Please model this.
Amino acid sequence: MRKSIAIIISLVFLGYGLIRIGVGSALLGQETGVIDFEAFRDPIHDVGKFLAKSQEKQIIPLSVAGYVAYIALMGFVLSIGAIRTLNNLKNGFAFIGAFIAMYALLFINFQTINPKAIHLGICMLLFGALIWLKGHRSQAA
Model:
């Protein structure tokens, strides 16, 4: 049962990572002019407004392209961690932990807390559960 739950959590992380890669890459393509889809114009505008509004608070100023590229990179790091964890390979937890640190750094950089902090909290809980489940399984084997 523990193994099944660990697999489900890893698959959730993989799915979340792939979504971040897809959304971040699509928005980066839109921002750089590689693609032009009506559906991506409002999100790019919203990100631009958020960045402009928080410009004076940002520790490291980000452009829209930089922000969405960072989102895609976060997804890539999380996906690698999830795949490595699913395959019981070294450093899977390290990559997932790096994703969580990257996520937390966004809140630190913008010096704000918003509803997305709930996502971070859920990721932290799932990561803790995954470590416990995988660690417990390792000791039993």
User: Anything to note?
Assistant: Confidence is low (pLDDT under 50) at residues 137-141. The CA atoms of residues 66 and 90 lie 30 Å apart. DSSP finds five helices and no strands in the chain. Helices lie at 2-32, 38-53, 64-86, 92-110, 117-140.
